[in-house]
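queue> pop job 88
queue> type: inverse folding (structure -> sequence)
queue> payload:
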């Protein structure tokens, strides 16, 4: 439904350049949460952002969303500098914050009306129905939020984002409040949607399994304050991805081991950002003192 342009996908569809965020501090000096954050995201890529709690992941994501003022450096999306929110970037937060007096259809339609004021009634209806279908909500169209489980409500939040036909989809710990079975269900739904739509996507998560299962690359942040990009892990699994196949692949556990050992042993370091792929990972030797985690 949303065709990609014919030309080669841009390798710098989203560019973070020397990004900095300083939060004002009532005692005088600003608190610098993030600095010198540099990262390029390819068009259609699914990238994960992980790091310790409080390191600045949501700060980076909300600056990309245009919801959090940038203190230094900049972010470019599809050749346009970000300075405010826009429908080209849709965000799904941990809680979907649906309008309780609207049913599922109306909750998705409200955004579509705002973003496509000149579309015909039928066009808007088709967009909403398509988003509800890809999110598996055909049977819940007339339900109100209080009649739905947390997982179903989050599906509505995802449908609302997808219906805006965003250039970039931003997921801020979207499954953090869900039980593990529902989380897996929604992860599979996200993968199915992105197999069809190829939307450039960034997910903030602290779940390393989730990051490896979903992402093409996982960007690891150093500890804050003044957090920056630490390492990048390239996940070599092909798409479409199948959960059972991936769980049975020893590389899955090597990727997880790398992320966990980064978080436990290297996130406090301020070394220049490094990229690891499958091959470099197989030859990656831990430094003395690094802890062993999973064994593949
Ligand atoms: P993460 O998403 O990695 O858990 P955040 O981006 O939420 O981390 O926060 C990064 C740091 O910035 C934390 O130390 C947090 O306390 C601080 N911070 C976040 N939002 C604000 C704010 N509005 N005002 C002041 N400090 C903030």
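queue> result:
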């Amino acid at each position: 439904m949303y065709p990609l342009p014919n030309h080669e996908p841009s390798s710098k569809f989203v560019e973070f350049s020397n990004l900095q965020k300083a939060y004002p501090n009532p005692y005088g000096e600003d608190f610098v949460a993030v600095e010198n954050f540099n990262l390029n995201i390819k068009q259609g890529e699914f990238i994960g952002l992980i790091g310790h709690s409080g390191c600045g992941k949501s700060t980076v994501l909300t600056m990309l969303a245009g919801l959090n003022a940038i203190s230094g450096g900049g972010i470019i999306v599809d050749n346009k500098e970000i300075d405010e929110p826009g429908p080209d970037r849709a965000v799904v937060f941990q809680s979907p914050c649906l309008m309780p007096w609207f049913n599922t259809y109306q909750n998705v339609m409200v955004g579509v009306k705002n973003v496509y004021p000149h579309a015909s009634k039928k066009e808007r209806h088709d967009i909403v129905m398509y988003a509800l279908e890809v999110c598996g909500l055909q049977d819940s169209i007339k339900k109100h939020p209080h009649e739905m489980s947390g997982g179903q409500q989050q599906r509505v939040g995802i449908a609302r984002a997808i219906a805006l036909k965003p250039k970039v989809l931003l997921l801020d710990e979207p499954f953090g409040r869900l039980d593990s079975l529902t989380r897996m269900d929604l992860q599979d739904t996200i993968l199915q949607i992105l197999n069809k739509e190829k939307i450039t996507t960034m997910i903030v998560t602290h779940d390393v399994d989730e990051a490896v299962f979903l992402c093409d690359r996982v960007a690891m942040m150093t500890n804050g304050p003044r957090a920056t990009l630490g390492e990048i892990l390239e996940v070599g699994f092909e798409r479409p991805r199948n959960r059972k196949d991936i769980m049975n692949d020893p590389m899955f556990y090597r990727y997880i081991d790398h992320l966990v050992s980064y978080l436990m042993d290297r996130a406090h370091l301020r070394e220049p950002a490094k990229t690891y792929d499958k091959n470099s990972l197989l030859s990656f030797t831990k430094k003395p003192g690094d802890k062993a985690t999973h064994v593949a």
